[in-house]
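Morning!

This is the sequence you dropped in the shared folder:
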Amino acid sequence: MKKGLTDLLSIKSVRISLVLCLITIMMVIPRYAQALKKNGLEADQTSFTQNVIKKVYPNGLTLLIKPNYDSDVVALNLLVGIGQLYETPSQKGISSLMQRCLIYGGTAHRELYTIYEELESVGASWGSAASSDYGTVWSRVTKPGLNKVLEVFFDIIRNPRFNEGDLETGKGEKIQRVKTLEDQPSNTVFSVFDKCFYGNHPYSWPVEGSIETISSLKRDDLIEWYRKTYIPNNMVFTVVGNVNPAEIIKKFEDVFGKMKKGRLPKKSSQPMPVLEKDIVFHQPQNIQGAYLVLGYPAPSARSKDAPVMDLIAVTLSNRLYSELRDKRGLVYHASSSYQTMVGPSAITGITVTAPENYSMVRDGIIAEFKKFCDEPVSPLELQAAKKYCKGIVTMSQGTSAVQGEIVGAFELLGYGYKYVDLYPELIEKVTPEDIQRVARKYFKHYVLAVVAPEGSVEE
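The structure's back. Tokens below.
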């Protein structure tokens, strides 16, 4: 399943009460208020992002610092514009493979075992990932080990070697990952849906790519992709924790200040197929149940309709579970997902049922989507959905690591890091009329993907 931007606000599980989280945020009053606009810095003095310091270097590199002097942990994040949205069909999975090899292939100055020794000596953790619209490299460490981690972190990002032997290991891991996902019906049904819904658009293939393209990628391909994408104006760094902002700004300037601005990688211009009728695709698989994903087009992440669709998705999930599971006992699982992508997006109803219940479940999902078009949501339902969406934003701020990725992603993808404060306001403004308007705009024709035993459901 794809990881969209607003999914960042819900996939992180934080064991902390809403009240406690709010109290914690209020207690982090800026002792650092003296660090106002100085030397090109921008410090926001309101809400959650009140102490975020933004520095944009002349070459376009953006650094966001969120000091927290009550925590000994420092979280470093790099966010870079890569992923399916930037890949061509022959490059499927190159971003995912590059991110993996970046941290495991050693550098021009360090073998992998040296990196392990240096980072583990200060108790640091580190890793990397790629999603549909961006990639990350991260590290977590306590304050005493920060200087050592910065030294290694910078070396990994600036001087990756993409070791030939490690590349082959990485390709093998990615191929095995693709095979594993293909054997899991919960992943297969989303893969089928994406292929039908997105057509030739890059979102139609998995982040990991395909076995064929992964196998064909060479070291030179990764080096070229790295040079095209790891340019200063395509990167956002975040540092969250117990740090001295002036020192951090100087360290980043020393390492990245002389990098030359480059031409930003192009996003795919491949158009989405136009849905002029409902599409149903059934893929037989040797399993017991029937997995359904039924979805409609949805606004992209930066659309003004996106917060409205967030509320629809929350309400839809509640309605599907209540109607199909609690009341009628037709499904083992029922939920919804709004894939808030930078490019074209989808909202889906997701169920697992017995094959003999397929028709009733399919019709039930369609009926719940149609209800948004025909009937205004009740004030009680809407208020519950708003409370949930705003609560998720607050709860997601529980760790320095999550804070850094959220503000960094919003900044990289064009929202601006302050969107984390704006989002609850946008949610609160949504009316029942907005819900109905957006539903009527998007819920016209659907794509239905079904994975079930052969011959067990009607074609």
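Headline: The CA atoms of residues 245 and 258 lie 20 Å apart.

More detail when I'm at my desk.
O.
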